[in-house]
Amino acid sequence: MRHPVLLTLLLPPLLVAGCTSAPKTPATGDSAASTSPSPSAPAIDYTAWQAGKSTPVADPVYPDRGTAALDVLHYGLTLDWAPPTKTLTGTATLQIRPTKDAPNLVLDFMPYQVDAVMLDGTTVTGAVAKEKLTVAAPVTADKPVTLVVKYHGSPKTTPMPSHRSDVEPLGLTVTREGGLWTMQEPFGAFTWYPANDMPSDEALYDIEVTVPAGWSAIAGGTPGPQSGSTFTYRSTDPVATYLTTLAVGKYQKLTATGPHGIPLTYWYRKGTDDKLLPYLKKSPQYLAWLEKRFGPYPFPSGGIVLVDSESGMETQQMITMGRKIENSAARRERWGTDLLHEYAHQWFGNSVTPTTWNDLWLNEGFATYAQDLWTQETLKLSDAGLDRYLRQADAKLRAKLGPPGKPNPKNFAEGNVYLCPEAMLREIHNLIGDKAFFALATAWVQERRNTQQDRAAFIAFVNKQTGRDLTKLINTGLDSKTTPKSIAA
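^ Aminopeptidase N, sequence as received from the core. Prediction below:
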């Protein structure tokens, strides 16, 4: 997610650059579906989805979201959007590995009308209450099952736990013209499909969306064949739920090629987004710059979709960027560096994902540092200027929001998890030099590709990579209530 807008007011301007026909009427409130059992389905070979295997960890920051009791290997989403009635009709097919014996399956899910639920081909009871779908069927640890949920209804968002100036409701949002878009960090995928909505459970995805003629549907993953007005996307690298995206609208499509043939797709509205097109077209330049420092881009394709938001989000393989910005050249330039920030997240946060939200700093510290290094290089700013900027920012943000290593659940993605860990990374960079620092950052994302990581793993890695014990430096940078002396020196 891009720099919170509040930083443009808090910090000096030097480096503030920035993350069909309708079915029956939906029911309101709780919903349920239940019919008699059907014969068991044939055995399924789950090895096809082993790349989606995770080690789920209950999230201490938002414990009501997600569960460590199951590991979703794969989501197959077949969706149909009807703008006139604002009705989303979906069939979600989930391949799930239970991590323990349990009397039921529980997933995060907005209270849509549930039309049918099947587990391994047998129709079972599924009830939605308090944003949880409970499937009344016993499961066994490490014995995978296939869950199918058919549902329909009108999308609703959920509040974002933050005080950022660009804060907006999370999840699937309906536009005035009847389109859709979503941003859902730290949660909100459950507003459009049943999900284990926490960062440690990553999964593979197949998404198919049918929209009216003349409309386009955009999702994360690699674009697949289009049949009429049905669009398909596949993610063969695992994706955390907060990194999935969906947008529907009357878009224009532009294709390009990034470094060593990476296919790129930009989705925009003609007329509305024309002034942002030059920055979309800088994507190959941004990617080449990032690859030089952090190694090969980690996914088979990339792209950007512009939506009616004030923010930006590093959704995997298809970045979601808000078009609502001040109409000034300076703001558009900052928007361009925000876009580079979201591209940096494809390495830091997407390919290597934090295990829990306590380690959001692992995402934002690196992406913000990449963004400010780009700004420094582009504007030919001095090292001393960057150091001074980070010292001042670190002091102000710790005083206002506390240390970044244990963020307040009510202050998600506010400035301390961006600039304070950036200052800590800058300290390591200054200590070991350019060559060693970029070798460290490259090894971190390339050797741990498609994994979930935490602070302890990062400290162990840094100590091994540098041959120094930097445990105190990192822990102090993440836990100190005031700017650490080593940074303030």
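The first strand starts at residue 31 and ends at 33.
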